[in-house]
């Protein structure tokens, strides 16, 4: 049974634009870690439409880390998906992205990267970030205003998010082999 492996859902006081706002193309990433090796099957983000909703879908990627920002490399080939704009409306709500299951390793920094890669024109979604003290222990919000070419690590902010998976399956079905799990084609 899938469970929440890591999350941050405390409050949410600052709206973060995702997409085009003025001259900026906003992309976000929340770094995270899990405390057990696990098979990942979905994430959820707290999101709503902005003043003008985008028409293009959102790309969700789970990437490896490079000096505190997303590397551009998937943590696993299955760690990407498309979140449909039709699932998002004008009120903040949890919107999920499911994945073909894949393994993530405990105590390793990953990034939940969220982008609207083909959006043009001034349209965006909004996500919430909290400025907690203390904040999410296992990562930080990273923001790009130039479609992911450069990043700012915001150590005082964390996106509202959840990562789901199943750690028990690894223990029951056998040990992880590289980045493969029992039953996955090697």
Question: Could you describe the 3D structure shown?
Answer:
The chain is built from 1 helix and 14 strands; from the N terminus they run ββββββββββββββα. The model is unreliable at 172-179 (pLDDT under 50). Strands 1, 2, 3, 4, 5, 6, 7, 8, 9, 10, 11, 12, 13 and 14 form a 14-stranded antiparallel β-sheet that branches. It has a single domain (3-173), classed as Jelly Rolls (Sandwich). The longest helix is centred in the last third of the chain and has 6 residues, at 168-173. With 186 residues, it is mainly beta.
| Radius of gyration, taken over Cα atoms and rounded to an integer in Å | 16 Å
Return the domain count.
1
Low-confidence regions: 172-179
CATH class bucket: Mainly Beta
Biggest sheet, in brief?
Answer: 14 strands, antiparallel
Q: How confident is the prediction overall: mean pLDDT?
A: 88
Order of helices and strands: EEEEEEEEEEEEEEH
Multimeric state: single chain
Give a count of the beta strands, DSSP E runs of length 2 or more. 14
Structural class: mainly beta
Strand content: over 45%
CATH architecture descriptor name: Sandwich
CATH fold-level name: Jelly Rolls
Share in helix: under 10%
Number of helices: 1
- Please give the alpha-carbon distance between the first and last residues: 24 Å
**In one word, what is the shape?**
globular
In short:
The protein has one helix at 168-173, and strands at 3-8, 14-21, 24-32, 38-49, 58-66, 69-74, 80-83, 93-104, 110-115, 124-130, 141-144, 152-154, 158-159, 161-166. It is mainly beta and 186 residues long.
């Amino acid at each position: 049974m899938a469970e929440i492996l890591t999350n941050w859902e405390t409050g949410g006081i600052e709206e973060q634009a995702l997409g085009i706002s003025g001259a900026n193309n906003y992309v976000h990433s929340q770094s995270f870690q899990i405390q057990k090796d696990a098979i990942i099957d979905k994430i959820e983000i707290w999101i709503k439409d902005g003043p003008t909703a985008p028409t293009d879908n959102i790309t969700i990627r789970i990437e490896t880390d490079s000096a505190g920002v997303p590397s551009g490399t998937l943590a696993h080939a299955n760690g990407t998906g498309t979140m449909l704009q039709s699932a998002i409306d004008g009120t903040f709500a949890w919107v999920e992205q499911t994945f073909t299951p894949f393994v993530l390793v405990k105590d390793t920094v990953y990034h939940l990267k969220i982008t609207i890669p083909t959006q043009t024109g001034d349209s965006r979604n909004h996500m919430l970030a909290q400025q907690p003290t203390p904040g999410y222990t296992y990562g930080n919000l990273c923001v790009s205003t130039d479609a992911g070419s450069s990043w700012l690590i915001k150590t005082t902010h964390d996106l509202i998010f959840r990562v789901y998976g199943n750690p028990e399956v690894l223990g029951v079905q056998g040990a992880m082999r590289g980045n493969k799990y029992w039953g996955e084609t090697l």
